[in-house]
Every structure is written in C-alpha cells, then in structure tokens.
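Let's do one together. I've listed all components of the complex below, 570 residues spread over two lines.
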Amino acid sequence: MKMSATRRAVLLALQLALALVVLLPFFWMLSVSLKPPDEPFSIPARLWPESPTLANYLTAFRPEFRTYFINSLIVSGATVLITVTLGLLAAYCFSRTKLLVLSALLSLIVLAQMFPHAAIIIPIYKMMRAADLLNTYASLIIAYVSVTLPVAVWMLHGFLAKLPVSLEEAASVDGAGPVRIFREIVLPLARPGVIATAVYVLIVTWQEFLFALSFTSTREMRTLPVGLNDFIGQYGIRYGELMASSMMVSVPIIAVFFLLQRYFVAGLTAGAVKG
Amino acid sequence: MTRHDRWLVWLCLAPTVALLSVLMYYPMIGTVIESFHQTSFIDPEPKFAGWALYEKVLSSRDFPEIVRNSLLWTVGVVALQNAIGLGVALLLNVGLRGQGILRALVMLPWVLPGVVAAILWRFMYDPQLGLINSVLLRFGLIENNAAWLADSGTAMAAVIVAAVWKGFPFSTLIFLAALQNVDREQLEAATIDGAGPFRRLVDVILPSIRSVVLVNIVLTTILTFNYFDMVWVLTRGGPQNATHIFPTKIFETGFGQFRFGEAATYGVFSILVLVVLVGLYVLLQRASAERRRTA
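Okay, and this is what the predicted structure of the assembly comes out as:
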C-alpha cells in the first residue's frame, strides 16, 4: 500500500509525540540525577545540567542502598528459580495429561492470578507471623512464589501446548522414561518459554512493594522499592540523590528486559491472545 | 498412561497445588473469617465481633468515599489505558520505518518499577521543582504553581495520569499481537470499497479483535483496582481521602493502625465491588453481542 505524503507526515508526527511522552520523564530522571548538588533547580527548570556529574550516584550508593540491592537480588533470584521450576513441572503435566480433573485444576490455578493482594494480605501476614517468618527472606520468597505461580503456569502451559508431541512419543517408543524425556526433549524446546516466564517473574518481583512493605520491619531486610520509598521521607528535598537511586534500581531490570525482549513479547502475547 | 506416570503427575503438581491452596485460596476464606473478628494495637487477641465491623465500616464516613474513589480510579485508568493502548498499537502497526525501535521503547514505562515510576511522577508534579509546572508556566497555560497532588480537586486526575503512563504499554503489547491476526485481505477489500481509516477501524479491525479487547479490559480492571504502589507513593490516599482506594485503605488500617479485622472487612468489600464491576462488564458485553446478532 502506498501512503500519501500528508498521511506519512501525520503518522510520523504522532510517533514523535509518542516517543516524547514516553521518554521525557526518563530523560528528566537522568538529567536531574546528573545535576551537581550545588546547581540550583532554576525556574523554569533546565532540561540538561550545565556540568553533569556522577556525584549523586556516589552519595546515593550508600551502605543501606547496597543492602537493599542485595536483598532484592536474593529475593527476586530465588523467586524466579522456584517459580519457574514449579511452574514448568505443573505446566508440563497439564499440557500432556488429558484428565478432566486436571483441566478443572488448571482453571483454579489460573483464576488465582486475579486474587486481590491487598484483600488477602492480612491472613498471609498472620500465617507468616505464626510461622515466625516475618522480616525474613523466606516470608517474601514464599509470598512471591505464590503470587507469580499462577501466571507462570499459564504462560508455560500456553507455550508447551504448542510444542509438537511427536518427538516425545518417538522417544517414549524408543524406551525413554518420562524423566528423561522431560530433561532431554522438553526442556531444550521449552527454553524460549522459560526465559519469557523468568523475565516476567523478575519484573514483577523486582518491583513488588505491598508485601515487602508489610512483611519487613528492619532496614537490614528491606528491598529496593521499600528502601526507595523510605528515601522520600529521609531525603525528601534531595531529588538529585533520589533520581540517582531510582536510576540504579531501574537500569538493571530495563537491561534484562531489552536483552530478552523478543522472547518475552512472544511468550506473553501467545497466552494472552489465545486465552 | 501407566499407574507410574499418574503418580508422577501428581508429584509434579503437588508443590504448586499446596502453595496456592495455603497462600492464595485459604487467605480468601481467611479474610472473611478475619472480618468477623476484632483486634487492635492494644488488644491484639482476636475476639468474635459478629457483624460489628461491617456495621462500623458501612456507617463510616470514609466508606462511600473509598468506593467512589476506587470506581473513579479504576474506570478512569482502564478507559484511558486501553484507548491510548489501542491507539498506540494502531500507530505502531502502520509499517513506517523505525517503528521496531519505537515498539521496544514504548515498553519502558511498564518495565519501570512501580515505586520508581511513582517517585518520578511525584517529582514531575512538584509545585516548585517539577517539570510539569515549569512547562505549563513557560507556555503561559497556568499563572501560578499548581499543587497537583495536594489539591483534592486535581489529585485523583494526577494519579490516574501517572498510572496510565505506566500501564498503557501493556495494553499496547496485547493489542499489537491481536492486530497481527486481522485478516489482511478483508482490510484491502475494505480499502478498495473506499473505506477510510476510521471505517476500516470500526468495520474490520475492531470486530476482529473484540474478544482481545474484552479480555484486556477485564484484566486491566482487576489489576488497576488492586494496584497499590502508585497511589500510596504519590499521595498515601490524601489529600483528605481524595485518592484513598481499597488497597491503600486496607494497608493503612491493617499495618498503620493494626486493626486487622477492620482491614479484612474492607478487603471483603473490595472483593465484592470488584466482582460486581467485572460482572457488569461481562453483562454489557453479552448484551452488545446479543444486539449485534439480532441487528
């Protein structure tokens, strides 16, 4: 189809406007994070600092921040590992076994992704308290695995259901047991789906705020989102530092997303559009 | 399937089923149980309270405000997020050069952690230092610095705008995938028949992505209704309750004031309101499908 010049120009202008709306806040965050602490916020605000510096980053990378960062890494890493493993096992059973009771069970699991976290947090909090797990990594990891599993099972099931079963059947005829088939045939084929799911779980847990805010009570156990929220009160007016911290929280997850984006988009939309 | 295989299947499912039963399904019931028991900071031992907490919540001045705010927030974010999401998806689907990069860039706000997005917007809205007032002042659109988040007349709109900015890429992503399934021949036939872009959208594109639109609306409704981070970091539900929604009220009551029973009662109400809201969508969708069939 050939486009008229006016139509082209209008579309291009719209795309530029879109890029501006999406990127301007990011640009602003970066710009303020690079402002030297002594350069005043002139009114009207300057878009780019006169003499950019990393000073804010050095101040913001204080010991608490490092603790929060490590906590986030541990909690998110463990959650991704456990959720993807359990999700893959469950999804494999669901996609290769035709039993009425299993499809009912799958619906119940998928339904759980709709449960409102704020509404169910009080009983979960009480269970954690009874098990003496409050303010530990375990409380967060257990909660995060539970809330991410439904989506993981759903994404992986959508993915596995599309794989051809003929290879597995051939291997079975050749006498390979279920464990071996899973490890040597299913796992390699499922890699893109596994990566997509892992990225999704990581994005969700890296930013999780409500459970982390409710379950952790000391600075030693706080994760990055809660730590950042604390910074608002402590350094309310020092936006330079706050923006530098925000950059350091966001850049890792943005990098992961862009590196693995093609898997992720395919994996998420396959399930969503089909369902 | 051999007996051995069946045993293996249940073994693989056991951890997932156990976790979700205890940490997702039981708490749904637990919240209801909790809502009939009163606790406080001074007296943390739960005592059976009958319907007392329901009466208390229903007769409080906050309750109607929270229901109204929750509906306003949810409908506002969902409508804007999906309308903009669809518009952007159409824009990124026209086949211009460079749109591949733009498709990836557009996802940025969604990947950005919620608390970071909220802090960033808090700063953008800052009356003295924020970008929004600077730009509006420079172009003469406002005369004095506006306190967007501190004014109960603008706070809700400001929170909704920030949430839409963060959330629309998700809708765009889903709509873009759906647009790949629109029949090209049908589109070309419509073009040859002289249908402009708007007619093509209404007559060809929208009917063929109907089901995806509905799924997206229901999904974003549930996610938005339960979204805590943005409102909590931007306003904590203020000023004067102007942005208090169910999740922020539950958190404040439960973990700010340690009134777990009352927080759970708000939780039960929030589930009821959400079920009604989603039910309404489904009914509306049924009714419109019915109309189409008879038309």
